Amino acid sequence: MVEPAVDLTHHDHHHDHHAHHGPEGLLKYIWSTDHKIIAMQYLFTGMAMAVIGGFMAYVFRMQLAFPGLSVPGYGVVSPGEYNSLVTNHGTIMIFWVAMPVLIAAFGNFLIPLMIGADDMVFPRINRLSFQVFFVSAVLILASLFVEGGGFAGAWTAYPPLSANEAYNLTPLGSSLWLIAVALEFVAFLLGGINFITTLMNSRAPGMRAFDVPVVVWMIVIASILFMLSVGPLIAGAVMLLFDQTLGTGFFDPGRGGDPILWQHLFWFFGHPEVYVVLLPAMGVVAEIITTFARKKLFAYRTVIFTVVATGVLSFFVWAHHQFIAGIDPRMANLFTITTLLISVPIAELCFVYIATLYGGSITLNTPMLWALAFIAEFLIGGVTGIFLGAAGADVFFHDTYFVLAHFHYTFFPIAIIGTFAALTYWFPKMFGKMLDDRLGKIHFWGTILPFNFIFIPLFVLGMGGQHRRIYNYNHFPELSVDWMQNTRIFATVSLLIMLAFQVVFFVNVIKSWRSGEKAPKNPWKANSLEWTTESPPPHGNWPPSELPNVYRGPYEYSHPDREEDYWPQNLPA
Amino acid sequence: MIDFILSQGSSYAAGLDRLVLLILLIVGFWFLLAQSIFFGFIMKFRAKPGQKAQYITGKEKHQKRWVTYPHLAVLVFDVAIVIASFNVWYTIKMDLPPADAEIRVIGQQWAWTFQHPGADGTLDTPDDIFTIDELHVENGKTYHYKLESRDVLHDFSVPVWRLKQDAVPGRSITGWFQPTESGTFDVQCAEICGFGHGLMAARVIVEDAGQHADWVAANTPEAS
Amino acid sequence: MKPIATTRSATGIQTGKLAVWWVLASEVVIFGGLLASYIMHRLGHPEWADAAAVTNTTIGAINTFVLLTSSLTAVLAHQAAERGDGPRAARFLGFTILGALTFIGIKAYEWSYEISHGYTILTNTFWSFYYTAAGLHALHVIAGAIIMGFVALDARKNIELHRVELIGIYWHFVDVVWIFLFPLLYIAK
Fold this sequence. Notes:
CATH architecture of chain A: Up-down Bundle
CATH superfamily of chain A: Cytochrome c oxidase-like, subunit I domain
Oligomer: heterotrimer
Largest sheet of chain C: none
Order of helices and strands of chain A: HHHHHHHHHHHHHHHH
Shape of chain A: globular
Helix content of chain C: over 70%
Structural class of chain C: mainly alpha
Largest interface: A-B, 100 and 89 residues
Shape of chain C: elongated
Distance between the termini of chain C: 55 Å
Number of helices of chain C: 6
């Protein structure tokens, strides 16, 4: 219970006092500006969208495994619907799952707590950002049900297909999709302002730049990357929207426009965007492995500088998505160089994380398993990217399932493994209860093992030349051979198993929330500031007179001068 | 690696496959090394009662070395891959060996039109042969293709030849290939182009000189 | 009630100012992307010079002068706010808003003239860029004027005077964007 700083003259809890309680009851969820409530709003919206995106994957993988058959819970999948399913699966997973959960939910929850602040600096803009985001979520879902159906031109939305309803046959769906994405961008621009300025200015007294936990740095650097890269795409989205609705010809070659311009505008954002989602996930992993290996993060400053270098370099690699798009071939050589160069700082980050484990005292509980799995699986995603970044090899691999498997080996660790790592680690702080570790491990293995059995086969299919976004391979004699179709079925069955195991997670959450063991302030004996307050933290995070001061960095584990193997940041020397 | 599944049906297929193999060997080595060290550390440094973890900052040079040297090594290998990639890319996309014949490939929603020179051997003359979804070429001859689109973006992809190029409306993009194996092979569209994208299956028929000449003779339109 | 977090300033720079600069950074990239696209198109289409010949350089120049003057009054408003003179700051903000309205009015006249003579957003891609770029800019002028109105109302009562500087910074940005648009759309013929 929050102690009021001033003696109250009456006990009515619905009015503001010096001990500010915030709105109560259901109104809390519409009017609250508390960063923790807003975080929950983003988290639950994101997870609901994940269920929808996952359902879409289930439907289109069933179509691929058993072409033409009615999919239970959906029906027969037409070619147009198939394209719409893969389009919206990708769009929803990136913009309405990965970003809101990793950046908005965990950023909102963690940043003020980890820097010892009582809230973000602009709580009302924070609330506005969620409201805009929520509208964007409603719009993208609405786009699936309008006449003509949802947009079906891939998440990359290349014109002329996306610009002209005569080609895409989904006039309403296309424009709603575009507006939804644009609104999501606005929401994250608004949110980013809060994250960046709050970190820059509102740190606890004594908290120097390199005393800030890495996950906070990562989320803020990701926000900066986002804010600096999304602009050209917003401009492009306005142009595409005008092409769709007014009949302008920005991307129409018959009217002096250029379809390739869209590709440049899209990928100039699209490539930094993957680092926008990667960085927060890597930050989460850093927090977890330091806590459960009881070790300092290896070369913390190097990590920060490497991440900034990666961010800067990410602006110079975009055209590796366009090697065979008709760009000047000499440009392709340039982008091969920059793309392979960016593998260097990413490799460094992986090495640093592995080095952090050296000499540690490792506990393999559920959050640690997720964090370690991130490293192992992301390594596969990273090395398979080399095949695509080298233009000479990309001539073969472009638009094949090899690309798809590569980016699922990066996105899945980011969006799914990263999320479960963060959720299982901070669940006690967020909800005040401990999760069941045994159920957690069952869920972990039931997710990780099938995941590999879905996507390794897809690398093989890609090497056989199988192209993407095709609803049925029966028209291609080389691709409809038995071993390939059996491989597709195998991948689909693995997906079904993986989806089934997600039930374990929901059971764990509900069971723990209702009757789980009550969480202490610091169940993991970690150092950062969020573990010094109640679980869950009250409105204002700490009593106003007890906001923490900071005396050291966040990774002082197993310090030789200390009896305890951890040293919270807020304890005086 | 690719050739375990697909034959090397063009003159530049083997070079591309060798690049892929080179990349596989290099990244495979790093991958196995990193994963084994990673799993090795996890096993070796499990929590033991009474034993504290080591306090390592990673700031001192002798500690940083363990990360700096590997990542410099990664850089060296990257350079090797870049050079190998340049060579393959140059051969396929920048070079244009003299052509024995030209064809035009036109993508549209949702079919491929192929324009072959007729008996006179020259493209864009009245005796040209137009086919839908069926490309006929002669084994061993060098072809230039002119790739166009009537509506949206498409992509002309022939996996056995390791050939792939986007078709951009408003442009005619030139490329080349030389088939080295007779047979009938898949052509796929590799850029989503509407709901019929998966229906744009075409076939390329590579024939020896005699068979091809017969086909040309049989299909050249009559002089009007 | 403002959080305690808003009272801290580890960088020494006021939080609101930091926020405005970050907003401007993202806006620069938006307009930058649009203008870069325009420039790339223009370089590839020399015939656009004929379309650009029609734009009215005189009106463009007048509007440039209007905006520059309004930036001057915004600076004077900031000076007054620094001295704690809220009502004076509000008056100068009022002049700035007047400048914004004048700009929009002139633009409305200019566009109705051009549209009535058959130059619409659909005429050709030059005109598409013209209306899109200038339109996006005009939206920012209007939005800025509205926010400035709220700041001025508060300033008159000597409340939140620091916001006068912040809206001024935003206003200078809007001005700078126009300084790029003017040569690209009007002078380059």
